[in-house]
Every structure is written in C-alpha cells, then in structure tokens.
Amino acid sequence: MSTMNSPASPSRSRRAVALLATALVLAVGPLTTIGAQPASALDNGVAITPPMGWNTWNSFGCGISEQLIRTAADNLVSSGMKDAGYDTVIVDDCWFDPQRDAQGNIHGDPVRFPGGMKALGDYIHSKGLKFGIYEVPTDKTCAQRQTKNPYPGATGSQGHEQQDADSFAAWGVDYLKYDWCSPDKTLDQQVAAFSTMRDALHNTGRQIVYSINPNSFHADKTGATYDWSAVANMWRTTEDISADWDQAKTSNSYSMGVMDIVGYNGRLGSQAGPGHWNDPDMMEVGVGSLSDPVLARSHFSLWAQMASPLVAGNKLTTMTSDIKGVLTNHDVIAVDQDSLGRQARIVTDSDTQLLTVRELAGGDRSVTLTNTGASTATVSTTVAELGIAGAPSYTVKNLWTGASSSTTGALSASLASHETAMYRITPGGTISTVQAPPADGTYEIASATSPAQVIDDPNSSLENSKQLLTWDRNNNDNQRWILTANPDGTYAVKNKVSGKCFDIRGGSTAAGAAVIQYTCDSAKPNQKFALTPAGNNGYKLVAQSSGLAVTPSGSVKNSVLTQQPVATGQAWTLIRTS
C-alpha cells in the first residue's frame, strides 16, 4: 500500500491490450538482475502454495482497531471463506504505537488495540486462523511518510530488525508484510535490508510467511526487475492496485488497474513456484467498480491463472452473495493452489480477446477466455491453438457455472465486455509434447530470460544495416515483427515500422556477426531463420546461412544483437499482437 486513492477507470485502449499481451507469458529462465543472482529460492517451509487471507488496507486504511480485526476474523469463519482457504488475517499499516518504549520495543496503539498484539494474535488463532502483521525496513511506514494527513511517528524496523522479529514471534505472528516505503537506496541496499529481516525471522525459530514490497515510494520498481525468490516467500511486482478494470497504463506507476498489473506480473513466471510467488497485490474483488460480478470474476480468474497469492480486501460484513460466490469458488481456488505452481502463458491477444492456458499437476490445463472488447462477443479457440492437442477428446469443466461437457477440439463462449470464461480441461488421452511452429502474424519477441526486454528497431530507424538490439518493452510498433513462413519451414522476420527484415550482416558465418535489418529478399539465406523449440514455448532464432542463433552481445538488457552458437544462444518468447 502507498495511499488509498482510486482514480476512475478510463476506457480500455488498444495500447492497454498490447500491454496485456505480455500478461501471462510463461517465462522459461531466471530474470536478469542487478547485483548477484539469487542461487536458490528461500526454503523456510511455508507458502508451499500461494498464501491466502484477508488484509485490512483496501477497505479500511488506517481506520483499524482491535475490535474491527476480531470482527473480521469472526466473519472469515462464518462466511465460509476460512473453509475456502483464506486462513490469514493481515493487519496492515497504522496498528502501532507511534513511539517505541524506552528499550526500543514496538507495541500496538494503546487506544485502538488496548488488549495488545499478543492478545489479538491469540484471538485470531482461537478461530483456527493465522495472524499477519505489517512493518517496513526503513524508518517510517507508508502512512507515516505521507505528506497529506500524515500518521505520526517513525516506527519502521530499521535498526530494530531482530528486536521486532522477536516481538512478532512472541505475539504469534505467522505472516509479515514488509513494505519498502522510501524513495531512497539502491537495489543492492534494498536486497540487503530485506535479507536482514529474512534472517531475523529465521533466527526466531518460528515459521513466518515473508511477504515483501520493494516498490512503495521507490522510483525504480525493482519488484519486476529482480528475482527476489532467495529473499522472500512472495514479493510485490507492481505499484499498488486500485479498484479499476484498467487505467490504460503503459508504465509500472501508481496506481494500477487489474489489467495494468496483469501486464507486468504475468510475464514473470520463471521465478514463481512452491515457496516463492510473484505478488500482483491484494485483490479488489468486491471493492468499488470491482463489485460488479462480471469484473470480479475476471479479476479472480486472472489472479488464479498467475498462481498469485489470494489476499482479499473487501468489507466482510457487507459482502454480497455474488462476491462471496466469486471469492469462495473452490474450482478456481484449486487452480490457484495447484501444486505444480506454474503461471499461465498467453496464447493470443487482439482488440477483442485474450486467451491464456496454464499447465496443472496431473496433466490438466486451466484456460481463460476474456472478451477485451467493449461489447458482447464470442471468443473461440481450439485445443491445438492452446498447445494441448494430441488426445482424442477432452472433458471441459466451466469453473464458473460448474457445467461439464466434452470436445474433440473446439472451445467457445459468448461473453459480455470484460467477461472471462474459465475452464479446466482434462485430456482423454496422451497430450502431445511436440511444439507447433508459430502461425504467421505480428509478434513481440521477448527474451525468455528477461521478459521485459524485447527485440527493437532502434529509434524506429528506416535505414538498411541498422544493428538491432534489445530494449525495454514500450508497446510501440518498432518492437513488433511480422513473421512469415517460407516454403522450407524457415521464417522471414520483418519490422512493422521499417518494413525491413532480420539479416546477418554480409551473410557472415562467424560467431559475433551483427544482426541487422535490411531490405527484404526472400532468396537470401541470411534472412531466413528457423524457430527451434527451446522449451515452454520459447524458441531460438537460428540463421539458415550460419546455423548460429540470434543472441544479445552482452547482458540481455539494452544489448545489440549478434549471432552465437545455438548451445549458448538466447531463447525468445513470441507474444502475438495481431
């Protein structure tokens, strides 16, 4: 959290749809990071599936009290949400006494939490629930840093990490939300600060889910550019969510609608798995405009497809039956909680539809069909398009209606604007693992190891011999490439702006030769590229003339392209835009 503002949502733009094209791409390698690459994921025995719970912030902000939290715990149980998996009550910002005691210990606000935090934790535990709490690694919490209506004090954990961790353990805390709340410090300093609390929690001997947000008040949104899996169980990848379908944002800036967030979080799948999860922020199901059941179902479906932590933020005492039905849909929750822990990948995206597919344990797939247009439309696909062809027939369960049917390949739904249909598909035979070649069309070509980097025609150049490079994804046409299959099975790759094709300079067969754009000539072998499957729907772009693969010359970020041996060459994810 940073503030409680929720601007009104503008109409959905084609540029926002293009942003969503990256939304659910299953990345196949670790992110490029600044500083040292984490060697392995945090293994503290918790968050084996994405955490689920309820957080105070989206509906109450700083207006919290001991009684409000106790009532929320009661309602989680009585509403059936606890039975559905929402097992943690998370007390967000503003719970604390703004002054530490003479020994530097932190305490709950004595007026609003007169029984103290241990007593609150004991009450939550008595309901069969877990106790979550909020702190920051800097000097001030987000509320204390606000210039408008500031909450007094400076009670962050900076300099008190082990002391606070010991207090949390003594109170029975099971979940810590640790929020950066500062414009200062480098990424390396952030990593060090978050790691300090990780180690302090470990030292307590208590198993505590560790949830971090490195983005609040920080210009560099490091949640989407660094693999935090060795530091925390879950980490915020975007700015704060608002209760909007989308705000047509093309940058990771405050605040963001559901679709804006999906466009960032959904492409980071390589770092997610049991014990370590991308966090696209708390859900707004049942809050503001997302009280609309159609939008609420879409929001919930896409969060489940992304293997996201499911943390509700609605007012439980006034929850409608429709919203309760969304939040407690056991079939959709089962997808989110699937033991394989895979995020979905994008299948196709256009002005009117978005299709995603997710691999589940045991060979099933979950599929979403979303109408991204402004009016009712039929959204259709096939199991072949979804990449799961190979069985003679399939059982299809609609996860929102509960109805089951069978198909030999076709899947279709008539959907209202922004409505999502979600299915679980069970094959009646063996799934083919053969990766189909991509269809002719226009694509963004994203690095599979650093998905925010895509192949770019520098400055929309129209020049022959311009060396191509990777660059930060910006949704512009100079980052879109028209793939056309040649009769021999190779592809021509032409830029949408310049109209010029991928080319190996001079037809060189040497490693390190530049990849350039040049006037298209279908007879030239140095303009023909095989798309060699590299796993998880990634490809290597191999020049016919040399047998070498298109690869960044150095680190993936903002790097010119050369050709290198296939064994060490870059894998690319194709994101269809038309």
Structural features, described:
The chain has 578 residues and is an alpha+beta fold. The protein has an 8-stranded parallel sheet with strand order 7-6-5-4-3-2-1-8. A 6-stranded antiparallel sheet has the order 9-10-11-16-13-14, with helices on one face. Strands 22-21-17-29-26-25 form a 6-stranded antiparallel sheet, with no helix packed on it. The chain contains 12 helices and 29 strands. Residues 2-39 have low confidence and may be disordered. Strand 13 (394-398) and strand 14 form a beta hairpin. It has 3 domains: 15-336, Aldolase class I (TIM Barrel, Alpha-Beta Barrel); 345-427, Sandwich (Immunoglobulin-like); 441-576, Trefoil (Trefoil (Acidic Fibroblast Growth Factor, subunit A)).
Structural class call reads alpha+beta
CATH class of the largest domain: Alpha Beta
Strand count = 29
The biggest sheet amounts to:
8 strands, parallel
Tell me the number of structural domains.
3
Indicate the mean pLDDT.
89
**What is the C-alpha radius of gyration, as a whole number of Å?**
24 Å
Q: Write the CATH architecture name of the largest domain.
A: Alpha-Beta Barrel
Estimate percent helicity: 10-25%
- CATH topology of the largest domain, by name, is TIM Barrel
Provide a count of the helices.
Answer: 12
For the biggest β-sheet, the strand order reads: 7-6-5-4-3-2-1-8
Which stretches are poorly predicted, pLDDT < 50 over at least 5 residues?
Answer: 2-39
Strand content: 15-25%
Overall geometric form: globular
